[in-house]
Amino acid sequence: MLRLKLGIMLSIFASVSLANDYQDWINSQQQQYKQYKKSMDDEFSDMLKKDWKTFQLMSTPSPYKDPKPLKLPKLQKPISIQKDEIINSPIIDIEPIKKTVIVKPVQVKKEIEKKENLSNLVFDFYSSNITIQYDKNTDFTLQKIDKNNISNFWKMMSKTNFTLLLDQIQNEKENLNLNDWATYQLIHKLGMAIFKENNNANLFTWFVLIKMNYDTKVGYNKDKIYLMSTIENNLFQVSFFTLKNKKYYILRADGQTQKIGTLYTYSGDYPKAINKLSFNIYNELKFFKNLETKNLTFNYNNEKYIIQTQYSQDLVKFYKSFPQTDYNVYFKTKSSTPFSNSILVKIAPLIKGKSEIEAVNLLLRFVQTSFKYKTDQDQFEYEKVMFPEETVNYPYSDCEDRSILFSYLVKNLLKLDVVAVKYSDHLATAVALSSKISGDSFNYKNTQYTIADATYINANAGTSMPKYKNSRFKIIDFQ
C-alpha cells in the first residue's frame, strides 16, 4: 500500500514537472516568435530609411473607346411578338417570393475594461456605432514628410499592442460582412478618429493593412502622403505605378480620382504582406439603416404599373465611393435584402402566368422606361457604373446601370443566364431564352443568346438599336 502511494506521488510529481517543462517550452516559443516579429519590424523600419525611388504615375482611362450617346433612340411602337413564339415559350410559374428576414449585425454591448495603457474610441461607420480600444502609445506628430519620419511612424506602431487592434477590426469586418474596400474604409476612418489628420491616417491604415497581410505601400510628394495597394480587380481613372510587374493603385476613402504626377516610395516588401485588396462583394454588406422608399412607374401592353422599392442610403453612400472597376463586380454583387424584399416581391406577381418571352419584355419595359437617361459625365462629371440600388436612387442612369439592373431581375426572377454585350460606346445584355424567337441573337458556348437592350426604349427582346445591328461587340460573361 505504501509503495502504491509512493508511486502515485512520484507520478504526480513527474506530471507536474512535465507540465512545467511544457509550459516553459510554450513560453520560450512565444518569446522567440515575439523576437522574430520584432526583428522583422526593425529590419523593415531600417529599410524604409534608405530604399526610396521616384515613380511616375499613370491611369487607365474609361473602357469606352467612344463617348456614350447623349440621347436615346425610341421605338414608337414595340415590334409585336409572333403568336407561335408566345405559344412555344414556357409559362412562368413562379412561386410567391417571400420576404427574406433581415439578419442585422449583432450589437454587442462591450464591457469596456478600463486600463491605463488603453484608450477607448466610438465612431460612426455607415450608421453603425463602432467601439475600439487602442494602445495609448499610438501617438505620432509628423514634423516633416520624408522617409525618416515614415520609418519612425512604423517603429512607433510596431511597439504598440497592435494585435488587440487587429482582432477588433477583424471582428467588426465579420459582424458587418465587410468586403476589402469597406474594411479599408473602416481602418482609415479609425485612423482619422485617432490622429485627426489624413497623412497620419494613411500611415496608420498602411501599417494595419500590412499587418493584415495586404500588399500596400505609402509614398509622398510635397505635403501629402499617399496610400497604395495592389488590387485584385482592374481600376479605371485611378492613378497607379508599376513596380516588380505589379500595379499599385492610389487609395482614397472617398474613391475620388486625382492626378498626382510623381511620388517617392520604397521598393522593398514586408514579409507575408502579399494579398491584393479586392473590390468583389461576395456577401451582403449589413448596411440596413437609413432606408428610403421610392415608387417607380411604367407601362406595358397599355397597362400602368407602380413598383415600390426600398433601399439603404448608407449602402448608396458606400457604393458612391467605389472607383470604376470590372463589370463582373457590379453584375455579380448580391443586392441588399431590403431592396430584394421590395422590388422582387412586387414584380414577381406581374410575370406569373405570362410566357417567358413576355416576362422578359415586361422586365425590359420596366427598366427602359422607369428611369430618365443621362450619361455619367453629365450627371457625375466622371464615369460611374452603378449597382441596382444606385440606379433606383439617382435621378438618371445610362446603359451600363440599366443592363446591370435588368440582369439582376432576370437572374433572380426568371433564373435565366445573361451576358453583357459591350460595343465601343454602349452596353446591352443578351438572354439565354428557353425557346427560339426571331430577331437579333448569337451563339456563345453552344447556347443561343437573344439581344435584350435595357436602354432602347420600347424595344422587345431580339431588337438591337439600329446603330449596333451589324457592329462588333465583346461578350462579358459573369456567370
CATH architecture of the largest domain: Roll
Care to count the β-strands? Answer: 20
Low-confidence stretches: 24-33
Category from helices, strands and their pairing: alpha+beta
Beta-strand content estimate: 15-25%
Biggest β-sheet, characterized?
A: 7 strands, antiparallel
Q: Class of the largest domain, according to the CATH hierarchy?
A: Alpha Beta
Portion of residues within helices: 25-40%
- Mean pLDDT over the full residue set: 90
What is the molecular shape? elongated
Q: How big is the Rg?
A: 28 Å
Give me the number of helical elements. 13
End-to-end Cα distance, whole Å, is: 76 Å
CATH topology of the largest domain: C8orf32 fold
Entry summary:
This protein is of the alpha+beta class and 479 residues long. The chain is 37% helix and 21% strand.
Structural summary, described in words:
The structure is a single chain. The chain has 479 residues and is α+β, with helices and mostly antiparallel strands. The protein folds into two domains: 54-58 and 109-266, no CATH class; 83-102 and 288-476, Roll (C8orf32 fold), CATH 3.10.620. It is built from 13 helices and 20 strands. It has helices at 2-48, 83-88, 147-158, 162-175, 180-195, 198-211, 313-320, 327-332, 337-351, 356-369, 376-379, 388-393, 399-414, and strands at 52-56, 58-59, 118-125, 128-135, 216-221, 224-229, 235-236, 239-243, 246-251, 262-266, 291-300, 303-312, 324-325, 372-373, 396-397, 418-422, 427-431, 441-444, 447-452, 474-476. It has a seven-stranded antiparallel sheet. Strands 18-19-17-16-20 form a five-stranded antiparallel sheet, with helices on one face. It has a two-stranded antiparallel ribbon with strand order 3-4. A hairpin with a 2-residue loop joins β18 and β19. α10 (356-369) packs antiparallel against α13. The longest helix is centred in the first third of the chain and has 47 residues, at 2-48. The termini are far apart.
